[in-house]
Amino acid sequence: MAYHEAPHKDPRKMGIGRSIAVLTSGGDAQGMNAAVRATVRVGIYTGAKVYFVHEGYQGLVDGGDNIKLATWESVSMMLQLGGTVIGSARCMDFKERWGRLKAACNLVKLGITNLCVIGGDGSLTGANQFRTEWSELLLDLTKEGKITADEAKRSSHLNIVGMVGSIDNDFCGTDMTIGTDSALHRIIEVVDAITTTAQSHQRAFILEVMGRHCGYLALVTALACGADWVFIPEMPPEENWEQHLCKRLITQRERGSRLNVIILAEGAQDRHQKPITCDQVRNLVSKKLGFDTRATILGHVQRGGTPSAFDRILGSRMGVEAVMALLEATPETPACVVSLSGNMAVRLPLMECVQVTKDVTKAMAEGRFEDAVNLRGKSFQHNWNTYKMLAHVNPPDVKVSNCSILSSNINIAIINVGAPCAGMNAAVRAAVRVGIIQGHQMLAVYDGFDGLVNGQIEPITWSQVSGWTGQGGSNLGTKRHLPGKNIEEISLNIAKFNIHSLIIVGGFEAYLGGLELITAREKYEELCIPMVVIPATVSNNVPGSDFSIGADTALNTITTTCDRIKQSAAGTKRRVFIIETMGGYCGYLATMAGLSSGADAAYIYEEPFHIHDLELNVEHLIEKMKTSVKRGLILRNSNANDNYTTQFLYNLYSEEGKGTFDCRMNILGHMQQGGTPTPFDRNFGTKMGSKSVLWVTDKLKECYRHGRIFANTPDSACVLGMKKRSLLFQPLTSLKDDTDFEHRIPKTQWWMRLRPILKILAKYDAIEIDTSEVAAMEHIIKKTGEIKGGKMLNK
């Protein structure tokens, strides 16, 4: 994201005298309500009037009661609802000029000059056309006497900002569209359920998922469930795919698999653009192989249900950014779309994104399938390459490189360290299988560093990790113990088992353990091997990475629990719940769960709070009980404050709220570490595991000298982490300066910038949005018209 220094602006005054309309158009998507809620509340916070446009563009054309003034309370209890509460419709009238004339007249009469559109590329293209024609429409309306010259002058310019709501994730320019993650949740729930019955009966299942022009849902589902085959429109199978598919399924059965899973996007096609259907694949498998085969078309179940934590936070962040973009826009600013790149909000020219999206469809129609995959962006490319590597290589047939390193018997050990979390097994599975593909022998170390000390080390095979992607916890076993005084025993076992490289999957203990091992290199030469730490912890507190495997699953667990608690509070009225989350001293879970569940406050260690702050929070809740929203939700991170404990907060709120509200307390505990991994954690773990082994393979080549491996440079022991937009390997030693070892957290944490959003959405006054870095417009098409990149830029 490009940034420029901006003068300090008071957000509470930016919207004074301005009016914003928000509408949802086209197909619905989970998370749209979060975007609507954030747009309304941040708009009101800035001093602007905000209007709902009901029923999409049809409501804009029809006007009247379809365009209503929004209030703070009118968007309460929306976060956990799927679909869009303000309605959506596919409007033919708006495609006609007379329809757009009526829409313009309705906006002018209400003094609305800022329009926020949440929808797909068709909806956003329509918004841009509306903006382009605006001056002409006003001229015609003035001539017809429908508006006065003064009204036309006051509404001389229309600002447009788009947010992409589409479960297909088919819009180029953003990593994830609103609704995609929730759709993946629905799909994976079905896949997990089907897997159990398929194993019982040794069946093959074909699942058709949505995605008429985009295979993202199918591709990520295939990665997340370890499918045997996936059909996507961007990359049709090779000629004679039927023969290859059957061979693949037979091979899986010969390896001991009791089931086969095939994922098919609804827009799947062959190289001659002939559709590939569920029935076609089912008939092929059942008739040619004789397998008991079933087909399931998921349909609109993928659109429904409760939005995931990711979609709620994404919608909220996009809504805030959309309001700021509208209020900062000038007549010269092109219509923009608010997008997500890594963990960063970016603004992109709307029509450039639409153009690249159309270019993908054109590339597919012309048979340029490699171009279609590339235009989808780096994220899509990485997913496709990872899937191909894990699913389409037959281990016994792998050709080992002529490189002396690979042809010698390289042993890579993989170990889980720290507390267990969902997604660890996905990382181990990917690492094991990619290692085997690379020609290495993979070794499993059981029970953390204790296993490395006691020699609990065994080879682990391709089939042993089958089905691990969807399993929670740690199948290898994990402990918090550090190498410490057992370094000598560890070095002896590294020599005994001839370990050439070590992959450590875990939380802060994995990071500390890695540091202890490389510090001991001076004394123990056996430790001079490449090492990589893969962050995996619900606390999300490992230096060098913005995200850790397992944090998303924990966040969804907390969010679901908060939904149920809020529902209870809504029934009893005048009740405040105080909930304690995990995370140690790291406030990530409490903050993000606060955003996704609509909490009134989230107490964390990183943002010190005092008795005056607690007093303000109590007064805020007392005022809230006077409105129609008679409930409260307070989150507290487990180590937020030594003295202001969860029990203390409960006692304080109970005492001060007497006669106004009563309190309840919940400590969520270890339920946050359990459960099956979310699609994000499965996919993230798979990519991290794969990338770590490929890095180790290259590092082994660099460190191989005179018939032995010797790695003692800082960059031979790294943390693999996501930083802003990229997966990066950073030397463990280089991260020490950014680490608060006493409290086991990084000194700088990106999500702290989101805390003002949480407070603004909870209706706190005098909250400043950090405007030291303002998102500047980026471009994804060069001036020559050549495509520069699709979804993830500069990754």
From TrEMBL:
Gene3D superfamilies for the chain: 3.40.50.450, Phosphofructokinase domain
Location within or outside the cell: Cytoplasm
Binding-site positions, beta-D-fructose 2,6-bisphosphate: 480, 537-541, 575, 582-584, 664, 670-673, 744
Substrates-to-products reaction catalysed: beta-D-fructose 6-phosphate + ATP = beta-D-fructose 1,6-bisphosphate + ADP + H(+)
Sequence segments annotated as region (C-terminal regulatory PFK domain 2): 411-795
Activity regulation, per record: Allosterically activated by ADP, AMP, or fructose 2,6-bisphosphate, and allosterically inhibited by ATP or citrate.
Major location (coarse): cytoplasm
Positions with a binding annotation for ATP: G27, R90, C91, G120, D121, G122, S123
GO molecular function, one term: ATP binding
Domain of life according to the entry: Eukaryota
Binding site for Mg(2+): D121
Residues that, per the record, bind substrate: S166, I167, D168, R203, M210, G211, R212, E266, R294, H300, V301, Q302, R303
Family: Belongs to the phosphofructokinase type A (PFKA) family. ATP-dependent PFK group I subfamily. Eukaryotic two domain clade 'E' sub-subfamily.
Function: Catalyzes the phosphorylation of D-fructose 6-phosphate to fructose 1,6-bisphosphate by ATP, the first committing step of glycolysis.
Protein name stated in the entry: ATP-dependent 6-phosphofructokinase
Source organism: Esox lucius
